[in-house]
Amino acid sequence: MEFDQAVTQLATLVETLERDGDERALLLLALVDDVHRPGIEQIVAGEFERPEALALRSMYGLAPVDQTTEAEEALDEIRPYIESHGGALELVEVRDGVVSVRMTGSCNGCAASAMTLRRGIEEKLRERLDWFEEVVALEPEPQDDDGSLPLLQIQQVPKPAASNGAADSQLLQIGKLKKPVFVDVGRLDELPPGTSKAVDVDGNSVLILNIDDEPYAFANVCPAAGGRLPLEGARLTDGVLVCPWHNCAYDARSGKRVDDEPGEPALAVLPIAVRDGVLKVAANAS
Ligand code: FES
After folding, report:
1. Nearest atom in ligand 1 to 246's CA
2. For 16-28, how does the pLDDT look when each residue is reduced to its tens digit (9 = 90+)?
């Protein structure tokens, strides 16, 4: 509608409302005036940055958007993905084109989180912000121990050299080297090759896999994010197990990392056997 036409119609409407004594409509008009007038007076006086003037300009999309707000809006586009993986993304600071962020939640301490930051977040910021130069991932802030424990506490210790001369091999030690107690966890032919599933073994969650009809078992926990997130749902392809949370990749037989972080902790391997087609896993951790 043309400006002049709108002014005429508004004047007519106000006249009608006043004549009819429509109190709610008149209150609405008074409030609109109260909200607009101080800002308009400041703008007329050239005081564009005063709070009311800024608020009024923002209402009509006429205020410059600051870089922090722009960065927050860009990060909002990638937050749902991070949150769907149990993490959270905090914007810490924007300065001279450098956006400093911090990953928290399940991403805290996960080496793959850093990769997520470098790739996904940087890509999004570069796409959205023409002033963007660099993203900096800050270290997670130290947190109080929340008392949460890994699903299974397993320790690997060197095998004594005297036992059979294989000094470099590793022995899985559970608690005080208790004799493994094997527990039935179903039949091998119920776990098709190339698949995995989580099973409960005396209260411990264990991930069992079938690779070419050879079964393997690991504690159902990814060590990458402080050992708090389950591996269940990991993709198993060509002997590689990829964690569903942040895509850390492990050798599905040895449990060792096979991505670009080879020094990071391996999966905890558990003894597994097949007897008469029945899978048996030992996970006695205490
Ligand atoms: S929890 Fe981050 S890759 Fe597994």
Report:
1. 3
2. 888 888 888 888 9
